[in-house]
């Protein structure tokens, strides 16, 4: 059954009418009741019939679209627009009953008390509708907040600057196997963010940009806490420091401390010192301090031993399963007696953050040391100075990669006169020294972890030769990651 039933009235001297549209299935209808000078627009073709819409004076009933909620009484206030709501099974059943009642009533226009009662509806429906409106309003507000553009933070007024103003998080460096870049003396060199002057590793593809998750948020909070928040501690109450960022203050303060800058021996200068010692056949030791050596010295002195173990689980691999007072004393004495000491350029907590506290604890005056970079081994290689130093010299190789490195060096015309394959930690130093004394050589390249510092010092001091702390450069040359 399909058709319409029209009902009219002469309220207020004007002619108004309601229209009931019966769907194809003849199940339900829509009652449109209009007041004075109001207009009713179309009801969408997919609207579920049975909805009762009542418009007041000078009101306009908007489109009821495909998703209009059936059976819902929508009252439109003055100069307002009615909107459709989503449908439910319960509402559909209610609308069907309402439509049938409207059809039986002959399509009479709804007015007066009956109209008011129909607008109100049952109490449960009114409560659920109110709850739904409030939930929808909250959801809309959340969506608007998410989509709203965030204002760019200003560098001024540190107290008011949010942590989110610290800028984007830097890229994280991960090991190709998905773990943290291996720690140890080469930790800073292996990191793309290292300040040691070493080029980024070949595994650049492993560097991933920080997302919008916890890492990025923590980074921003950390930058704020270590920058603007520190500045804010020096600003008196009821004052601001306009248009001056923490970076500006650091730059100004740095100029004050610039006279304290200490220049490190460059790769070319170091190559000259080594070659001069070789030519003069005098002893020379070059040792390097990385996080492994510094954490070993810091255990139970500058840091609690438990914290050192947590920060440096690699120490066993580096030759120090447990930092003891004897090991620390031996290592400190080797540093004190070395001819050249490589120190980290990185100001990270386990590099320069430990360097000076550790030296101070062991009574070593850093200004009395001849300093170069802790990555001088890589710098010599990068500057193409390594082979000129070794060619024409008798070379002893010590370390787990000694045999493979020896074969590689011989391909480049280097005379390898001895190989000592492995050093089993600090306790193995006496045995290695005995084996070393049995070889004839001009320069020893020692790649033996933390014990290399002690071995280089002793080889130079006891055997009168040049000894160079070669480190993980041996591994990188053997694996082909770096080329001679």
Describe what this molecule looks like in 3D:
- The chain is of the alpha/beta class and 484 residues long.
- 38% of the residues lie in helices and 13% in strands.
- It is built from 18 helices and 14 strands.
- Strands 10-9-8-14-13-11-12 form a seven-stranded parallel beta sheet, sandwiched between helices.
- The chain is elongated.
- Mean pLDDT is 73; it is low at 1-88, 105-122 and 146-210.
Could you outline the blueprint of secondary structure elements for this entry?
Blueprint lengths: L2 E7 L6 E7 L8 E3 L5 E2 L11 E4 L4 E2 L12 E3 L12 H16 L7 H9 L2 H25 L39 H4 L23 H13 L1 H5 L13 H12 L9 H14 L3 E5 L2 H8 L6 H7 L13 H13 L2 E4 L8 H10 L9 E3 L2 H7 L3 H5 L3 E6 L2 H10 L3 E6 L8 H8 L6 E5 L3 H13 L2 E4 L3 H7 L5
Parallel strand pairs: 3-5, 4-6, 5-7, 8-9, 8-14, 9-10, 11-12, 11-13, 13-14
Antiparallel strand pairs: 1-2, 2-3
Helix pairs in contact: 9-11, 9-12, 11-17, 15-18, 16-17
Low-confidence stretches: 1-88, 105-122, 146-210
Largest sheet: 7 strands, parallel
User: What structural class do helix, strand and pairing data support?
Assistant: alpha/beta
N-to-C span: 93 Å
Helix content: 25-40%
Strands, total number: 14
What is the overall pLDDT average? Answer: 73
Q: Name the strands of the widest sheet in spatial order.
A: 10-9-8-14-13-11-12
What fraction strand? 5-15%
Give the key terms.
alpha/beta, 5-stranded mixed sheet, 484 residues
Summarize this entry quickly.
By secondary structure, the protein is an alpha/beta fold.
């Amino acid at each position: 059954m399909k058709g319409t039933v029209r009902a009219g009235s002469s309220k207020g001297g004007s002619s108004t009418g309601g229209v009931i549209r019966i769907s194809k299935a003849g199940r339900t209808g829509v009652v449109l009741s209009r007041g004075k000078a109001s207009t009713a627009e179309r009801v969408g073709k997919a609207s579920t019939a049975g909805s009762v819409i009542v418009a007041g004076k000078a009101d306009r009933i908007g489109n009821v679209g495909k998703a209009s909620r059936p059976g819902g009484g929508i009252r439109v206030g003055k100069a307002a627009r009615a909107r459709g709501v989503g449908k439910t099974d319960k509402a559909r059943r209610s609308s069907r009953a309402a439509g049938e009642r409207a059809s039986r009533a002959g399509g009479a226009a709804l007015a007066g008390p009956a109209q008011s009662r129909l607008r109100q509806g049952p109490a449960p429906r009114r409560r659920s509708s109110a709850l739904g409106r409030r939930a929808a309003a909250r959801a809309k507000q959340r969506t608007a907040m998410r989509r709203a553009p965030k204002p760019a933070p200003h560098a001024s007024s540190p107290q008011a600057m949010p942590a989110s103003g610290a800028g984007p998080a830097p890229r994280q460096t991960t090991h190709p196997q998905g773990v943290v870049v291996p720690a140890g003396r080469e930790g800073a060199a292996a990191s793309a963010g290292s300040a040691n002057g070493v080029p980024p590793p070949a595994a650049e593809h492993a560097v991933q940009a920080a997302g919008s998750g916890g890492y990025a948020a923590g980074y921003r909070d950390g930058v704020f806490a270590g920058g603007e928040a520190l500045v804010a501690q020096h600003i008196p109450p009821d004052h601001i420091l306009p248009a001056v960022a923490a970076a500006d203050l650091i730059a100004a303060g740095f100029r004050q401390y610039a006279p304290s800058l200490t220049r490190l021996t460059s790769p070319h200068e170091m190559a000259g010192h080594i070659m001069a010692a070789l030519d003069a056949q005098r002893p020379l030791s070059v040792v390097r301090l990385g996080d492994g050596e510094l954490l070993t010295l810091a255990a139970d002195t500058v840091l609690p031993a438990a914290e050192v173990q947590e920060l440096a689980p690699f120490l066993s691999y580096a030759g120090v399963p447990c930092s003891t007072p004897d090991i620390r004393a031996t290592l400190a004495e080797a540093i004190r007696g070395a001819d050249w000491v490589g120190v980290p350029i990185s100001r990270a907590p386990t590099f320069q953050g430990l360097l000076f506290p550790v030296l101070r604890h062991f009574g070593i005056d850093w200004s009395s040391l001849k300093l170069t970079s802790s990555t001088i081994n890589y710098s010599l290689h990068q500057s193409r100075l390594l082979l000129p130093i070794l060619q024409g010299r008798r070379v002893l190789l010590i370390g787990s990669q000694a045999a493979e490195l020896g074969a590689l060096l011989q391909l480049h015309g280097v005379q390898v006169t001895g190989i000592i394959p492995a050093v089993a930690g600090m306790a193995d130093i006496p045995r290695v020294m005995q084996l070393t004394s049995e070889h004839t050589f001009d320069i020893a390249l020692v790649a033996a972890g933390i014990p290399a510092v002690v071995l280089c010092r002793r080889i130079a001091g006891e055997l009168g030769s040049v000894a160079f702390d070669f480190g993980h450069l041996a591994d990188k040359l053997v694996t082909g990651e770096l080329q001679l």
